[in-house]
Amino acid sequence: MQSKKIDISLKIWRQEHPDAQGNFQHYSLSGISTDMSFLEMLDVLNEKLTLEGKEPVAFDHDCREGICGMCGAVVNGQPHGPEPGTTLCQLHMRHFRDGDQLVIEPFRARAFRIEKDLVVDRSSLDKIIQAGGYVSVNTGGAPEANTIPIAQKTAEQAMDAAACIGCGACVAACPNASAMLFVSAKVSQLALLPQGHPERRERALSMVGKMDELGFGNCSNERECEAACPKSISIRHIARLNREFIKAALFSE
Amino acid sequence: MTLDAKIPDGSLAEKWDKHCFAGKLVNPANKKKYNIIIVGSGLAGASAAATLAELGYNVQVFTMHDSPRRAHSIAAQGGINAAKNYQNDGDSIFRLFYDTIKGGDFRAREANVYRLAQISNNIIDQCVAQGVPFAREYGGSLANRSFGGAQVSRTFYARGQTGQQLLLGAYSALMRQVHLGKVTIHARQEMMDLVVEAGLAKGIVTRDMRTGAIASHTAHAVVLATGGYGNVYYLSTNAMSSNVTAAWRAHKKGAFFANPCFVQIHPTCIPMHGDYQSKLTLMSESLRNDGRVWVPKKAGDTRPPAQIPEAERDYYLENKYPSFGNLVPRDVASRNAKEVCDTKKGVGETGLAVYLDFADAIKRDGIETILRKYGNLFQMYEKITAQDPVKQPMMIYPAVHYAMGGLWVDYNLMSTIPGLFVLGEANFSDHGANRLGASALMQGLADGYFILPNTIGAYLSSCAPGVPDRSARVFAEAEKNAESLISKLLAIKGKRTTDDIHKELGKLLWDHCGMARNSSGLQKALDRIPQIREEFWNNVLIPGTGKELNQSLERAGRLADFLEFAELMVTDALDREESCGCHLREESQTAEHEAKRDDEKYAYVSAWQHQGTGKTPILHKEPLTFENVTPSQRSYK
């Protein structure tokens, strides 16, 4: 496909600091190459704003390869934009048409504070992991790696869950701002693998408890999280989390 | 000052065990009375932080990201090497050691590399115990794949996301220690300076990237695990914020910088498509197993690839290197790609690309076989370029990928500043002049999980436990310097953006201090860099203030350091008048125009001592001796 140049207009959420009143600002860009990535388009806007003596738009990003989970914004109502299974950094301008208007907002949730413009604080996701998203094993005492065989299929399913990049799109997509897909991805990975079994009960209970405590909502099966997830993580993991949670809650020791 | 690498005596295989035994230990009851600062939370930083906390130390982790899980280790695709010999194909600790030291073109220490190979097996055990979902065989045992530079299959992997899974393993161990109260995470903090008092590292000064607040943090030891400096070239496969700032500011405080000119340039990346390009994306090297590299024979040929007949194509790697063909090592493939593009035979809109053609492989093996092998890579390529590699040849071009150079460290991973330790890509230790695939993850985790926790005790036992002694004046001064640097940057209010100036620096280095170098080009770069630096300090435009989240200011601060570091890198390249590892020095070639290493003159580590910005640094040489392997000259003809 040959690259083209398109003109677009942008409506971007601007907010100076966490406590400031934010609002939408309008910008227009012309001659945007369709080979550009979405974030490169924002770079072009920011260079332009800087040279005009205006404040550039703050947005989080880092690897620009779709794996660090740092980038993310809601584009025309969809976290990470319109392409399925794609982070914002891997979205290209060829998916938009000449004359399109793009509305760009931060990921919104009670548990995600807006720091500035499109930058949000997602440390609540770290806190959920701190509540139990690990195997309690110290460095040094590990048995020979091949001691416990793990069926290939099981390892693959665990990997499907472990692919989560912690971007928070699932939370932003959910009408309840629930982090169930995020929590379930970790619980599911460790419930599938034998290494995670000794702590599976405590893990399910404490991670879900922490999620509630931090102000994330509940799951009401909207499936928006799965649709928005840039790694296409399935809500089957939520089903597994529910099983883990119910088992742990009903059959306590 | 003389460099003492502190390599233990004894046979290669016994050195590490003996060293661990000989080192002083900290009394278990006293460990909680020691504070350790770790800057960076990638594989090396996170694994070190978790392990030191498990041992009982108090650890403070500083990351410039919103979460420790974002560090760029996460982007490593291929895998991690270990000498498990699960495949029964003749692997051993000695073979992994040999392959690594040979791959580094005999510019690394034998003792360090051997230790790395020894520890490699413990890393796999540790990661499996944490629940890292490595690929498995049907019978449930761990799977391996082959990787460049080795004839055995020893690479462990988790799909194309091995770095992610290993980092999340280390991150989860770290989060557990946060929960247990042994680690404090300081997110969105940038290290502004290392504080050195009476010659010892005593702490750091940081800037809160949300509020601009400058703060001091004291400790008994400081650990830098801040990654590589590839972004000095502007375009690289590194993450956007990867930088040299922490390492450079430590260098200015007395830490020697080793081998800064050793940078790996990866041959198979997606080419750049315009001057707005922000970074480059790596494609797995495995593509060269079946793809054929070619360009049109005629310079300036703009016909689409399908219209160029077979006779008018130049399969330059196959023609030049008949026995290795398209599978020549990374540096040879990269250098030749740049050479053909420099003679205007490059393809694509920018002319900075070569074809990697799968048409013959598809004809030979069928499309299904090829898609089974490379389907995900083809998809990734198509996502970025909107071109289908089944229908038309892929376009590739080399890109800066990994920095072998870094702060000089001894066998204990301690820099020339006592109390300052350096881990992972930020140090220079194990890869010599060239890093083999799947070795970066191994080194980062070896440093963090196993080496530092066993060597830091000997240093700490020389410090008094309890509140670290420090003079408030030194910290206040460092804070003041940090504040004034920021005010100085903001006061310039010039006409050019940071990125604009960074691109200029990057292009200069790519042209003159890239894959092939010569003294006149390097001299030209050395003359030009101070001019660009002056332009920056007179004409950069940074909007906003220092008391808020200001990403333009962050980038400018990093570029200020790159502009000083670049000069050292070029100075080092100029000194090393030999072709070695990743680099061809044009003055040092064989009759067939192949790289010629010069062991007589250059079998040393270059360790540079800072003398002030713009002043010629002092070169200290650490000689490299080889008692267990014989350096051999590479040949791929």
In short:
The complex is a heterodimer of chains A (253) and B (637). Chain A is an alpha+beta fold.
Lay out the secondary structure.
The complex is a heterodimer of chains A (253) and B (637).
Chain A: E1 5-14, E2 23-33, H1 38-51, E3 74-75, E4 78-79, E5 101-105, E6 113-116, E7 119-121, H2 123-130, H3 152-162, H4 169-173, H5 180-192, H6 200-213, H7 224-228, H8 236-250
Chain B: H1 15-22, E1 35-39, H2 43-55, E2 58-62, E3 80-81, H3 93-103, H4 110-130, E4 155-156, H5 162-179, E5 183-186, E6 189-197, E7 200-208, E8 214-218, E9 221-224, H6 245-252, E10 257-258, E11 263-269, E12 292-296, E13 313-314, H7 316-320, H8 330-342, E14 354-357, H9 359-365, H10 367-385, E15 394-403, E16 406-407, E17 420-422, H11 440-460, H12 472-492, H13 498-512, E18 516-517, H14 519-539, H15 551-575, E19 584-585, H16 599-602, E20 604-609, E21 618-623
Parallel strand pairs in B: 1-2, 1-9, 2-5, 9-17, 18-19
Antiparallel strand pairs in B: 3-4, 6-7, 7-8, 10-16, 10-20, 11-15, 12-13, 12-14, 14-15, 20-21
Q: What are its keywords?
A:
heterodimer; A: 253 residues; alpha+beta; Ubiquitin-like (UB roll); Fumarate Reductase Iron-sulfur Protein, Chain B, domain 2; 2 domains; two-stranded antiparallel ribbon; 15% strand; B: 637 residues; alpha/beta; Flavocytochrome C3, Chain A, domain 1; Methane Monooxygenase Hydroxylase, Chain G, domain 1; five-stranded parallel β-sheet; five-stranded antiparallel β-sheet; 21 strands; 36% helix; globular
